[in-house]
Amino acid sequence: MSDPGVAAPVDDDELREEAEGLAVEPVTQFDLFWARLRRHRMATIAAIILAFIVVIAVAAPLLQTWGVIDNPTTILVDPTGRSLRNIAPRVNDGNIFLQGSAGTVGEPASPTALIFGSDDLGRGVFTRVIWGGRASLTVGIVTGLIVASLGTLVGSLAGYYPGATDQSLMRFTDLVLGLPLLPVAIVVGRILPEIQFLPSWIKSGPIGIALLIGFLSWGGLGRIVRAEFLSLREKEYVEAARAAGAADKRIVFRHILPNAMSPIIVQTTLIIGIAIIVEAALSFLGFGVRPPTPTWGAMAAEGGRLAVRGFWWELFFAGSALVITVLAINYLGDGLRDALDPTQTIERK
Amino acid sequence: MAEPLLQVSDLRTYFTTEEGVVRAVDGISFDMAPGERRGVVGESGCGKSVTAMSVMGLIEPPAGQIVTGELLYKGRDLLKLAEDEMQQIRGGQIAMIFQDPMTALNPVYTIGDQLSETIILHQKVSRREAKEIAAQALEDVQIPNPMRRLEDYPHQFSGGMRQRVMIAMGLSCNPDLLIADEPTTALDVTTQAQIMNLMLQLADDRDTAVMLITHDLGVVAGFCDTVQVMYAGTIVESGTAHEIFDDPQHPYTWGLLGSMTRLDDAKQHRLHSIAGAPPSLINLPGGCRFRPRCEFATELCRNVLPALRVGDAGHVVACHRADEFDLKTLAADGTSLEEVAS
Amino acid sequence: MFAYVTRRLVYGLVTLLALSMIVFTLLQLAGGGPLDRLKLNPRMQPVIQQMTELWGLDQPIWRQYLTWLTNYVTPETISLNNALPIVAVVAAVGVTVALVQLVKSQWRGMALLGVWVFAAFVVLRNMTIRFNWGISFQGKGDVWDLVFSRVGATFRLGMAALLIALIIGIPLGIYQALKQYSFFDQLGTTGAFIAFSTPIFIIAVGLQLLLALYFERWTGVKLFYVTGMNSPSYASMTLIQQIGDTIRHLTLPALSIALISLASYSRFQRASMLEVMHSDYLRTAKAKGLPRRKVVVKHALRNALIPIVTLVSIDIAFIIGGAIITESIFAWPGVGRLYIEAINTIDYPVVMAIVMVIGIMIVVMNLVADILYGVMDPRVRYE
Question: Which chains pack against A, by 3+ Cβ pairs within 8 A?
């Protein structure tokens, strides 16, 4: 082997492996996806921030932050605690939200409640921002679920069964897509609390708004899913499965759906962000989640009025909460898109 | 031999990527004579296309760069030309056609527009004259109804016809050299044959030199005068078509030919496949690049990069052991490769 | 092409019909019904009887709907002011026939479009048409007059926002693509993300505070106005002053809407441009020896700009929604603010009228976009 002149077959194992290009160890799709996701810096940061927000929102009742300042002369304080005198406070009609069930008028505010200052009813902005987060996140997630289910259901049926089913389903989807979102949502939002036959948790609460937004915005996902199913249907492995005698249900769930998941996941994530914004807009206008439940949109409206007089903190903190949450969702969605579909080589992070 | 049309000397084109420097073309030299039909063959990623793009000056900085080399076209070094001078040569004297005819034409302009564009650019003619030249070019590539077809858009042509249009566009300004990068790979076999015959005829008529880049040895056999075999950014063997096909000297060439079926096979033998895969162009093995896959590799091969050595008059090969055995004769005897190697 | 347009028109009409039914039904669900609402308003007392008869408010819901529908779509009066509309249409038809026969250039489609747009414009300006859309339940008068007195303001706001977004957004996206991965590109991308994550009302209120109210407080200079379309003394201003006054009122509201639209145009254009830049035909163009500038302008841009048309048509819905919110914040005398007022008081005829106007505008814009797309992209034309 050390004589260069003699013909020596390659028996060096290392060389052989190098030549054969052997893979090191099997990796699952999930591992690949996870690695790609983690490499996306912004998405990782976004995910952490989002997790933080969710934890705080869920744990709100446990956070022991509540309270209202019930002293007319010191009712409006800024984040440094300085109270602004000579403010004519809004008339307190007794309908003040505190924390759902505990805390009452007259109970002194806990130390944390006022770190963001108070509004002109003496309510701690920090407390309301946290509780507002519950409303916004609820709307976001429930809307996401509705859009994902409806969109996938309709889209998959339309994409898998061509002909009459496809045509009629798509006509219906186009109809829903053709409805202008905000104008219709405003109408529904306005009348929702007045509809007699609805249970109260729908009439005035985040779930109701979520249903409203969800049923108006599933069309986009429906179209996307249909397109995916249409193309995946023609794949060879589906043909093979059919030839092997697999039933439709099996083919759909086992072969097509897993491959269609990535656009569904990405689109749903983005819809959650949009839903939060739409809910905030509705609340801003007064047609969303009704007071006294705090919601970032309504806080922005009140805060805006206060800010005109120089009292900027309610608007600032409620607005920041909105922007940061939706920004995190959008970055996460972007990261998911890159991680799930690595063939998009044009964008690089 | 007459004054060579193109002289490439020690061309090196590297690409800088996140993972490292890709040495796509790493020191190749060859000549082309006027009217010569030269085939450039090799696996994907061996540097064939990059060679062509380097000659055309279409390597995009900052990622890609021609690091060293000399590209003498009719005596002028293309690498030293200013961009506007190079633009005159591109399309006018050296033309290039690409692999996928479906996407190579701009969908929003008519064929006539795109043909005329080239013609007006390189020949000082009016729009109307350019249109007539364009129609003539379409007729040359055997597209019926040329005047009417000029008004059509690319999507109204089939794949084979689009490739004809590409050829027409390439030849419309009577270049001296036509570079064809896998012109028939995207087409079906029958169309393939038609296109190659067409190119043969046109090149013959006009004495155009053709550099045909392909991985399909069958196409090369029917068309080319000379062949160069590339591997991992270098030329491993080069010679006339006869020499390469009848008397392959390099183990890689041997492997390529052995993996083809041939109608004139004397005996039945198994198709030979070359084990392994081409090396990464970032981390190239020391010494001969083919060594990890070569049955004949020795210590010398591991350490020293073989240079192109002249064999029989013009037939050059880059292998340390080329002189040791005559692969063709051994094969004809029925000696298997394993027997030869031991 | 013709069949395609007709089909889309039909779909649009069906959507509008559905929209009207949905909103009409929803309004009925609000505690009480139109009749009860009407009775609540003391000002309307004298006319209740009259309106009930006119609108069939004591009829079952489906009857009410049909009454409303018939009134909504049938013009009360329609007439031509002069002969111009007829001249315009005849001329347009003549030009169309001539162009189709004689001219083969690819610009023919664009020219035809321009001719017909001009003709439509002439027709609309020289005819009188009026619909009976009812009387506002809140005593604001005839709905048709009400809506049309406000439409101009909203149109001004919407157009301004659209233009700002297009003029800034598209070059931004193109430049980002040409200088991909540069600091500018990354800055632009981050900015776009922030824009997409900020609700319009935050931008609007923020602009109001920072560029007007607080700005004035800090510098003493009143740069922009935050309410209304023009100052009270507008009529007595010189032309220059009038232009300045208009701009100072229009900027902040238009900017509030435009910033988000701008971000989406730039993202879209960037992606489109990048795709085109990596295309094969661009490589072919370079291989032909075309100078780089020509390659970019003639080949790349022409392709990259095609999808804009679709984007704008989708954006119209966003601009309308944005106008609704922005008009409320800036007290802009437009249809959006009227809508909010009408919704708050559930002023049936006004709400229905405006919802339908919005729907019609969206359908028309989508149709225009489809036609434009066909003009610009020859691949679509031959379907």
Answer: B, C
DSSP label at residue C235: G
Which strands, in side-by-side order, build the sheet including B209-214? B94-97, B177-181, B209-214, B37-41, B226-231, B234-240, B316-317, B309-310
3-state SS of A67-78 is CECCCCCCCCEC
Q: Residue C46: which H helix or E strand, with range? A: none
CB-CB under 8 Å, B103 with C279:
yes
The two three-digit tokens of residue A55, written as one number: 């934890």
Record: contact C283-B104, CB cut-off 8 A: yes
Domains contained in chain B, CATH given: 6-224 (3.40.50.300), 242-341 (no CATH)
In this structure, the number of other CB atoms found within 10 A of the CB of residue A26 comes to 6
**Residues 294 to 353 of C: which have CB under 8 A from any B CB?**
299, 302-303, 306
The angle at the Cα of B252, spanning B246 to B253, to the nearest 5 degrees, equals 20
Per-residue pLDDT of C228-257, as tens digits, reads 888 888 888 888 888 888 898 999 999 999
Q: What are the phi and psi torsion angles at C25 (to 5°)?
A: -60, -45
What one-letter code names the amino acid at A131? W
Q: Which residues of chain A have pLDDT under 70?
A: 1-27, 64-75, 81-111, 342-349
ipTM entry: 0.87
C-alpha angle with apex C335: C229 to C258, nearest 5 degrees?
65
Among the partner residues A186, A277, A300, nearest to C343 by beta-carbon distance: A186
Distances (CA, A) of C263 to A217, A335, C195: 21, 19, 6
Contacts of A172 (CB under 8 A, 6+ apart): A154
Packing angle, helices A257-285 and A313-340, rounded to 10: 170
Average pLDDT, chain C: 85
* C376 and chain B in contact, CB less than 8 A: yes
Return the minimum-mean-pLDDT range out of B132-146, C41-55, C190-204: C41-55
Whether B112 and B131 have beta carbons less than 8 Å apart is answered as yes
Written as one letter, the residue type at A168 is: S
